[in-house]
């Protein structure tokens, strides 16, 4: 800027020495330069350019380096959240725009530490490990943008995963202070543990205007279908425990209950089921002799016998996931990881990612009231289906539950699918485990249509230089009434194709006719098949023992009355 | 001149420098100014616009185990009390199945629907009459309110537009007087139109209480998920049963048609919903995007007429709606006064991919239909992007969208009956939660109405999904031999048949269905075979019992046989290997055909040797066990009773059913025509085939069936499947199925 300034100051002094024609020329050029300068200046004072700079600070950052923001008591509080919000009413699509990749851009606010006027933080935990993982995963993904002006979705770095650790009013004030908050429009909050005692609301109690909520534990009454996203409650065991996938099949126990905080009414009900069905059920509880702490989270007991959790989950076909104070339970994640089919008893619960996942293929949902009939209901499920569900459960965990990254990116993909529905991922993409994706056949022409004869067909004849046989084919095929068009592909660069009706005599023809019998030819074709199969990774060809013939083929019946009398004479 | 050059260079360098500044040099001045501006800092927070980075150092987990436990252990309200509280709390606009529906009514008798008797003097519109008769003709119907799980009013609630002549007055009082109303609990109310000019609200003008709504043009705001059902708007001419087929006859590749996107309809100059259609002209290009509107509707259109009206009206008259509909790749479906419009079903039927432009419309049957597979969901706010959006859709996707329109049209929309049955099935799926259809069952062939989850909830147990799941059809079958004559000699055809079938390498089990009046013969009288033979007595000895889904059938494949069928083991083997390639169809030997007898104006049945066939009789045919279940539960009692009384036509009915489901003909294998020893009628036994009335009856059956189905589902085929080397001039030793040739 300064160097250019130097030139511009020297410019005018030189002008008088020139001819008028040139002077005008230079004045024009000069004003262009000046305008450019002004524009540059303007550009810099524009706030977005400040935010859009590339990172240039601190690689090794820690939470304590984040700037401290003091919230005035009178700071505005957002509105509670509108239950009638939908994408077309509360979401600004213009921010997302048309883009050839059909991918939304997501901006993450830089980290700040909010405190009230007395200096007390708004959250007891601050940024949690999980939220940090989530934000990092998003920032490493294709969704991420550091350019706030191009963003379609905004994610605050204020951690609201667990409502218990939040001061509700202050958190809300902090949200409202975000520079692009704008009534929460296009903001996405992640919450896994909503509500608090005694009522345990099923959605985050922090007032949040129009912000979208990715919540773990929505009920049908708080979930805004097509707006909010129902997410799982992340289980910390996902990262700590490595459970190898087990082959689907029968397990030692039929039903297992491993949750430790089950309401006594339900525990009594489960005990009753256990009495009726004996060994098929395993009812675990916390171990009374173990001290509290992380270690006790990994043990379960039944009558003094200690079991490893979550490993024991792999020993059962079905695992009960009952509602607790909240609808969303981290146990669901453990159960899926173990490849155990979850039996979900949580009335009105919106299952995680239910917008895209077909839970009927991976779980059994039973109304709480029917807990006593659980055994009978589960027994009626065919074995084959149980095995399929076991596989599906494990796949759901791997793809959508296993890490904060999986949870976060799935949430963004769901929102992305809503904004670009015509480019949305398909049901098969969401729900088919890789083994099915590989082996299944989804024909692009899946509709059974019996086309009319009228449009006929086009014959495509590939030829090299066997003109004689080409003409023979053409003569024969042009007799067919349904032939609409005949296309000859001349596959010989050295010769030009015969013109019009001219007849050729081709001496080599007879020699080449024996081509298909040639031994090397067969070997080559076998090699082709092997090559193709290895590229495809599988052999897609199927062997059948039947062939199609006309109904009256070879029948002792007047040929005149047959639709296709000449079949077989070729 | 030298000087001029110098200045030129100087200025160019200056300009270049400035340009460089604009593009990339911003951080220099910024870094200098940054710290001095606290306001900016607040705006951008921690480090101006720094990219989010994973933070190092110890962070606490978001929840601790102890805390979770203490949360859950707080003696929260008893679950039972909580449930009871919900039902009092969440009513009206917040109704859900849990809070407003009494599941206990459905427990004893399953999902049964009661229709109130029609009251004298109460006029019903044709559409509503069609809805009621569809329910009454369905398998869900019960005439006993004590058995019912769901109640349907016989008061016409379809048109709640006060200005409409169909509007029923005093509905509120009439409903309150119904003895079974019970506050609307377990009732479903059908509605097509609500509200009136100018705002067209979704108010029905009476209190629906706890009743569910099956409503057209319902908005997401008013739609109670998992409680209401969004139904399509259909006209009074919509057929009751049968229904028209989709217009797609064959696929074209590339899939583009003459027009890319079309629309032809009214434009509302004022009032609700007018904005969308008023803006359409922006993207109309009169070439491949043709969006036409007319102002000419209503009495006083001239009054509100705007500057574009005359031009628009003139353009409007130039195009034929049908021509556009059939020749366009996409069809715009913008909202009208109400959110839904007739355009939607018209486009669907015409295989013109609907481009929805109706923000907030809860699409028909959204609970079960994955509309992204068949339509483009646009946003009214992004109208100007619509052309580029539809142009960006890949050919393959268009091909798939187009086929899906046809699938959905024929599965759920082409008759009032389908719309009503879909509504009921959706509710049934909610009631019988753990036996409900998965998304795949609803959205792939043959559709949810033919995929009954009461048979199985596993996709593997149906004949439709093998390829989709990447699994092979089963490798074994069960033979069911239908026996009606007593056992007198060991050389009886049935004995030979039993031995031949049991010898098949694919046979897992033989079941003899004893439908003979004589008592069961002793066990030792049946020939010894390597596979187990089970003899079961037919239920009340009626012919339909051959299609009961017996639990004793261990395999998915059923080889259905008449007692006098003559088949060799080779033929059995071959038929089964063919079936493995076509597991959803009937594969077998005796082929028959139907034809339209234009003199008598009725369907005819023929067993003559013809060039085509449309039925393969179940006297020697193999098919999936699921069709037994479908035959028994899907078909109405009236047809089954008719079949049983005549002891005839059960095989025709089965062919009707399978073709209705698959939309494909059955498959005849090999040359063999005669499959019974007694065909020629020399038999002394009372074979039903020898009866002269038998044939006439079959004609009658065909017409009765076609009448009930509302359409003729049978499809002709000219193809028969033979073993690959069949009658080829190669050594017989090279042929696998030699016996077939010798016959």
Task: Give structural notes.
The complex is a heterodimer of chains A (570) and B (743). With 570 residues, chain A is an alpha/beta fold. Chain A has three domains: 56-233 and 402-433, no CATH class; 235-398, Rossmann fold (3-Layer(aba) Sandwich), CATH 3.40.50; 455-496, no CATH class. In chain A, 32% of the residues lie in helices and 13% in strands. A five-stranded parallel β-sheet of chain A has the order 9-8-12-13-14, with helices on both faces. Chain B has three domains: 82-230, no CATH class; 259-403, Glycogen Phosphorylase B (Rossmann fold); 477-671 and 686-721, Spore Coat Polysaccharide Biosynthesis Protein SpsA, Chain A (Alpha-Beta Complex). The longest helix of chain B is centred in the first third of the chain and has 23 residues, at 2-24. Chain B has 743 residues and is of the alpha/beta class. In chain B, helix 24 (692-709) links the parallel strand 23 and strand 24. In chain B, the strands form five sheets. Chain B has an eight-stranded mixed β-sheet, with helices on both faces. In chain B, strands 2-1-3-5-7-8 form a six-stranded parallel β-sheet. In chain B, strands 10-9-11-12-13 form a five-stranded parallel β-sheet. Classes of the chains: A alpha/beta (570), B alpha/beta (743). The interface between A and B is large, with 166 and 148 residues.
């Amino acid at each position: 800027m300064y160097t250019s300034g130097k030139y511009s100051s020297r410019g005018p002094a030189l002008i008088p020495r020139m001819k008028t024609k040139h002077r005008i020329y230079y004045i024009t050029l000069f004003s262009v330069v000046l305008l450019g300068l002004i524009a540059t200046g303007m550009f810099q004072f524009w706030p977005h350019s400040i935010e859009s700079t590339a990172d240039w600070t601190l690689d090794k950052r820690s939470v304590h380096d984040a700037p401290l923001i003091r919230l005035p008591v009178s700071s505005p509080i957002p509105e509670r959240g509108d239950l009638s919000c939908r994408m077309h009413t509360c979401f600004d699509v213009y921010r997302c725009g048309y883009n050839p990749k059909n991918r939304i851009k997501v901006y993450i606010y830089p980290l700040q530490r909010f405190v009230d006027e007395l200096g007390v933080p708004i959250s007891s935990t601050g940024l949690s490990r999980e939220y940090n993982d989530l934000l990092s995963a998003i920032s490493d993904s294709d969704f991420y943008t550091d350019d706030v002006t191009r963003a379609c979705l905004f994610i605050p770095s204020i951690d609201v995963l667990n409502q218990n650790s939040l001061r509700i009013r202050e958190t809300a004030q902090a949200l409202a202070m975000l520079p692009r908050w704008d009534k929460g429009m296009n903001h996405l909050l992640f919450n896994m543990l909503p509500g608090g005692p005694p009522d345990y609301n099923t959605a985050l109690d922090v007032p949040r205007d129009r912000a979208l909520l990715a919540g773990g534990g929505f009920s049908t009454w708080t979930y805004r279908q097509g707006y909010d996203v129902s997410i799982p409650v992340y289980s910390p065991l996902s990262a700590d425990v490595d459970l190898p996938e087990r082959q689907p099949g029968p397990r030692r126990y039929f039903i297992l209950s491993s949750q430790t905080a089950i309401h006594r009414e339900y525990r009594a009900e489960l005990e009753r089921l256990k009495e009726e069905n004996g060994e098929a059920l395993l009812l675990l509880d916390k171990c009374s002799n173990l001290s509290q702490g992380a270690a006790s989270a990994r043990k379960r007991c039944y009558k003094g016998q200690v079991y490893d959790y979550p490993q024991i989950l792999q020993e059962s076909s079905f695992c009960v996931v009952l509602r607790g104070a909240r609808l969303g339970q981290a146990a669901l994640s453990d159960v899926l990881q173990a490849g155990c089919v979850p039996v979900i008893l949580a009335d009105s619960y919106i299952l995680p990612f239910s917008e895209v996942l077909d839970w009927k293929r991976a779980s059994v949902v039973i109304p709480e009231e029917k807990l006593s009939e659980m055994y009978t209901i589960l027994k009626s499920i065919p074995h084959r289906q149980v095995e399929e569900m076991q596989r599906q459960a494990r796949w759901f965990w791997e793809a959508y539950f296993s890490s904060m990254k999986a949870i976060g990116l799935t949430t963004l993909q769901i929102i992305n699918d809503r904004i670009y529905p015509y480019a949305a991922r398909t049901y098969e993409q969401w729900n088919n485990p890789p083994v099915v994706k590989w082996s299944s056949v989804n024909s692009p022409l899946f509709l059974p249509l019996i086309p009319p004869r009228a449009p006929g067909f086009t014959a495509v004849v590939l030829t090299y230089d066997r003109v004689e046989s080409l003409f023979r084919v053409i003569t024969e095929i042009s007799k067919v009434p349904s032939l609409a068009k005949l296309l000859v592909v001349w596959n010989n660069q050295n010769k030009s194709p015969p013109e019009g009706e001219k007849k050729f005599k081709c001496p080599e023809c007879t020699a080449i006719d024996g081509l298909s019998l040639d031994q090397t030819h067969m070997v080559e074709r076998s090699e082709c098949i092997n090559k193709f199969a290895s590229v495809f990774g599988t052999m897609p060809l199927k062997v059948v023992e039947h062939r199609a013939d006309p109904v009256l083929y070879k029948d002792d019946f007047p040929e005149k009355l047959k639709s296709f009398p000449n079949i077989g004479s070729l | 001149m030298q000087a001029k050059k110098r200045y030129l260079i100087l200025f160019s360098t200056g300009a270049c420098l400035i340009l460089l500044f604009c593009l990339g040099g911003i951080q220099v001045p910024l870094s200098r100014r940054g710290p001095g501006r606290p306001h900016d800092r607040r705006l951008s927070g921690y480090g101006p616009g720094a990219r989010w980075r994973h933070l190092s150092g110890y962070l606490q987990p978001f929840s601790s185990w102890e805390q979770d436990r203490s949360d859950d252990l707080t003696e929260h309200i008893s679950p039972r009390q909580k449930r009871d509280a919900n039902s009092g709390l969440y009513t009206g606009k917040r109704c859900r199945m849990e809070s407003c529906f009494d599941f206990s009514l459905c427990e004893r008798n399953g999902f049964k629907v009661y229709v109130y008797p029609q009251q004298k003097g109460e006029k019903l519109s044709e559409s509503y009459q069609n809805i009621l008769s569809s329910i009454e003709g369905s398998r869900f119907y019960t005439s006993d309110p004590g058995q019912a799980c769901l109640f349907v009013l016989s008061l016409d609630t379809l048109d709640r537009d006060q200005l409409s002549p169909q509007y029923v007055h005093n509905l509120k009082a009439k409903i309150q007087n119904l003895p079974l109303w019970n506050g609307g609990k377990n009732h479903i109310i059908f509605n097509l139109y609500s509200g009136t000019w100018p705002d067209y609200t979704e108010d029905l003008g009476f209190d629906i209480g706890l009743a569910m709504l099956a409503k057209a043009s319902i908005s997401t705001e008013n739609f109670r998920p998992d409680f209401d059902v969004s139904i399509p708007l259909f006209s009074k001419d919509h057929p009751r049963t049968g229904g028209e087929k989709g217009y797609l006859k064959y696929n074209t590749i590339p899939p583009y048609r003459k027009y890319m996107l079309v629309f032809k309809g009214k434009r509302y100059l004022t009032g609700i919903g007018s904005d969308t259609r008023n803006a359409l002209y922006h993207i109309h290009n009169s070439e491949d995007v043709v969006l036409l509107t007319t102002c000419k509707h209503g009495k006083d259109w001239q009054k509100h007429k705007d500057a574009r009206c005359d031009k628009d009206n003139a353009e409007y008259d130039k195009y034929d709606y049908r021509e556009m509909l059939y020749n366009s790749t996409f069809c715009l479906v913008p909202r009208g006064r109400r959110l839904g419009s007739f355009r939607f079903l018209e486009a669907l039927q015409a295989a013109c991919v609907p481009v929805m432009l109706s923000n907030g419309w809860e699409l028909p049957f959204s609970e079960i239909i994955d509309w992204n597979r068949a339509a483009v969901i646009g946003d009214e706010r992004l109208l100007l992007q619509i052309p580029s959006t539809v142009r960006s859709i890949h050919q393959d996707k268009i091909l798939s969208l187009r086929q899906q329109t046809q699938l959905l049209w024929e599965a759920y929309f082409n008759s009032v009956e389908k719309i009503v049955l879909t509504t009921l099935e959706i509710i049934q799926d909610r009631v019988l939660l753990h036996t409900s259809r998965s998304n795949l069952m609803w959205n792939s062939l043959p559709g949810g109405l033919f995929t009954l989850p009461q048979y199985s909830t596993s996709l593997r147990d149906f004949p439709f999904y093998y390829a989709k799941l990447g699994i092979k059809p089963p490798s074994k079958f069960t033979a069911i031999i239908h026996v009606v004559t007593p056992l007198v000699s060991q050389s009886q055809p049935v004995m030979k048949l039993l031995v031949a079938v049991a010898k098949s390498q694919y046979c897992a089990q033989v079941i003899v269905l004893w439908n003979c009046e004589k008592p069961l013969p002793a066990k030792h009288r049946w020939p010894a075979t390597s596979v187990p033979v089970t003899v079961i007595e037919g239920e009340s000895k009626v012919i339909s019992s051959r299609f009961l889904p017996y639990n004793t059938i261990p395999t998915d494949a059923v080889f259905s046989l008449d007692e006098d069928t003559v088949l060799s083991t080779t033929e059995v083997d071959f038929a089964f290997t063919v079936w493995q390639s076509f597991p959803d169809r009937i594969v077998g030997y005796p082929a028959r055909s139907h034809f339209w007898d234009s003199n008598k104006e009725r369907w005819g049945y023929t067993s003559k040797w013809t060039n085509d066939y449309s039925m393969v009789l179940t006297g020697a045919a193999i098919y999936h066990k699921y069709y037994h279940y479908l035959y028994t539960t899907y078909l109405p009692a009236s047809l089954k009773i008719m079949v049983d009384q005549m002891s005839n036509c059960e095989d025709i009915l089965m062919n009707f059913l399978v073709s209705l489901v698959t939309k494909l003909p059955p498959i005849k294998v090999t040359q063999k025509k005669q499959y019974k020893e007694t065909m020629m009628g020399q038999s002394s036994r009372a074979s039903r085939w020898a009866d002269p009335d038998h044939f006439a009856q079959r004609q009658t059956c065909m017409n009765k069936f076609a009448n009930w189905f509302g359409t003729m589902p049978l499809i002709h085929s000219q193809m028969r499947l033979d073993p690959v080397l069949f009658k080829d001039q190669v050594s017989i030793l090279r042929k696998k199925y030699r016996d077939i040739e010798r016959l």
